[in-house]
Amino acid sequence: MNHNVYIYILVMAGVTYLIRMLPLALLRKEITSPFVKSFLYYVPYACLAAMTFPAILFSTASVISAVVGFAVALIAAYKEKSLLTVALCACAAVFVAERILEIAG
Question: Considering the entire predicted model, what is its pTM?
Answer without folding.
Answer: 0.63
